TrEMBL record:
InterPro entries: Flavodoxin/NO_synth (IPR008254), Flavodoxin_CS (IPR001226), Flavoprotein-like_sf (IPR029039), Metallo-B-lactamas (IPR001279), ODP_dom (IPR045761), RibonucZ/Hydroxyglut_hydro (IPR036866), Rubredoxin-O_OxRdtase (IPR016440)
Organism lineage: Bacteria, Pseudomonadati, Bacteroidota, Bacteroidia, Marinilabiliales
SMART domains the record matches: Lactamase_B
Cofactor requirements of the protein: FMN
Record GO terms (molecular function): electron transfer activity; FMN binding; hydrolase activity; metal ion binding; oxidoreductase activity
PROSITE patterns (alphabetical): FLAVODOXIN, FLAVODOXIN_LIKE
UniProtKB keywords: Hydrolase
Protein name per its UniProtKB record: MBL fold metallo-hydrolase
The keyword Hydrolase is annotated on this UniProt entry: yes
Species this protein is from: Maribellus comscasis
Length: 397
């Protein structure tokens, strides 16, 4: 690839992964993902994070193409996850005197994944490393989204190397900086990356945003996706909104259904919400749409209504997977409605009630359960559930 610079002697070393289907072996990435590393060439040379292991050979070649036979002095480990530390052992083999820079939580992970680190610099908030013209300082942002996560701020160029924070799914298809690409495409990918990967850690993200606020930042260089240099507010505003559970007026309806009875119940609710003036209604079949996309919409809209048929005295499995993902992510401040269908002795709605107790979202209406085909009385109940949800949402808008 042609050389890409963030500033005169700060280099972008990024690789596009269009092969992997599931990020973290869970989340679909139909548009791929990039792994971004950065090289600062000064009196001392620092490498900021590395890349996923399948790119090691090209990565080492690119580094050598820039620094020739000079050695790298520091490897900054902002984040230890293997998609960023995958080349760590190869880097140490090639540059045996390199110092690993991390915080007190980093090196335990290095040891458990790769090797016993020997040459280390343990950093903490405001710790500084002088490279010559460039000066690095470090800020800890734990749990965004691993315990050891930190960011590196380069004071001369005012670049923050943010690790996974402000990252995105989607490869960098030629354009690397925010002003080189159409952000409409990344709108979805940035949010899905946030909700899938960082979303559980919203309070930590809020703390990180506040902690970084005093820094004079001209550029944000994350480990995935575009580098933000022209419109930093674009990504900062969105991160702030999402991580503070600032939800829009709308409803996500999810159902599982084998024979169509539960689906028909969902359609009644959706129609009545529309009649009441709710414009953002997203109806998903949990067997068809991956939870990555459904979770994303749950982070957008305040209303959530879920329906499940009984299945072996429990929830329909694909609904169960989604609800367990929601429990892990624990997004806050939603309104909830539940409904279901059965033929024998039930099991779906019984377990939806347990979900409601655990998630502690406000139930807008009593659970509704139909046996087989939808009859008039239960249809009227579903309309009332939709009305109760609309009442709650419209009063706030
Ligand atoms: C594998 C399987 C397990 C089921 N388990 C139960 C059950 O435990 N309790 C029950 O009342 N109905 C059970 N049912 C019946 C369905 O819940 C019922 O027919 C329901 O109406 C299906 O809803 P649907 O039309 O939305 O698929 C089961 C059906 C299947 C295929």
């Amino acid at each position: 690839m042609q050389q890409v610079n963030l500033s005169e002697d700060i280099y972008f070393l990024g690789f596009n992964d269009r092969r992997t289907h599931l990020f973290e072996n869970i989340w679909p990435i139909p548009h791929g993902i990039s792994y971004n590393s950065y090289l600062i060439v000064d009196e001392k040379i620092a490498l900021v994070d590395t890349v996923e292991r399948s790119f090691i050979d090209e990565y080492l070649d690119e580094i050598e193409g820039i620094i020739g036979d000079r050695a790298i002095d520091y490897l900054i480990i902002n984040h230890m996850e293997p998609d960023h530390s995958g080349a760590l052992k190869s880097i140490i083999q090639k540059y045996p005197d390199i110092k690993l820079v991390g915080n007190k939580k980093t090196f335990g992970f290095v040891e458990s994944f790769y090797l016993t680190p020997k040459n280390v610099v343990e950093v903490y908030d405001d710790y500084r490393i002088d490279l010559g013209k460039h000066k690095l300082q470090f800020q800890m942002i734990p749990m965004v989204h691993w315990p050891e996560t930190m960011v590196t701020y380069e004071e001369t160029s005012k670049i923050v190397f943010s690790g996974d924070a402000f990252g995105s799914y989607g490869t960098l298809d030629g354009g690397i900086f925010d002003d080189e690409i159409n952000l409409d495409f990344y709108e979805v990918e940035v949010m899905r990356y946030f909700t899938n990967i960082v979303g559980k850690y919203c309070p930590h993200t809020q703390r990180a945003i506040k902690k970084l606020a005093p820094l004079d930042i001209k550029m944000i260089a994350a480990t995935h996706g575009p580098i933000w240099r022209s419109d930093l507010d674009w990504v900062l505003t969105r991160y702030n909104k999402w991580s503070s559970y600032d939800l829009d007026c709308g409803v996500v309806i999810v159902y599982g259904s084998m024979y169509g009875n539960t689906q028909r119940m969902a359609e009644v609710i959706a129609r009545q919400l529309a009649v009441r003036g709710i414009k953002n209604i997203r109806v998903y079949d949990a067997s068809k749409t991956h939870s990555s996309y459904i979770i994303n919409d749950i982070f957008k809209y305040k209303g959530f209504i879920v329906g499940s048929p009984a299945y072996n005295n429990s929830l329909f499995p694909n609904v169960e997977i989604l609800l367990s993902t929601i429990e892990h992510m624990a997004p806050k401040d939603h309104y909830l409605g539940v409904f279901g269908n059965y033929s024998w002795n039930g099991g779906g709605v019984k377990n939806l009630k347990l979900f409601a107790e655990k998630i502690k979202w406000e139930m807008v209406y009593d659970p509704i359960e139909e046996m087989g085909a939808l009859k008039t009385d239960k249809k009227a109940e579903l309309v009332k559930l939709a009305n109760a949800m609309a009442d709650k949402l419209l009063v706030e808008n």
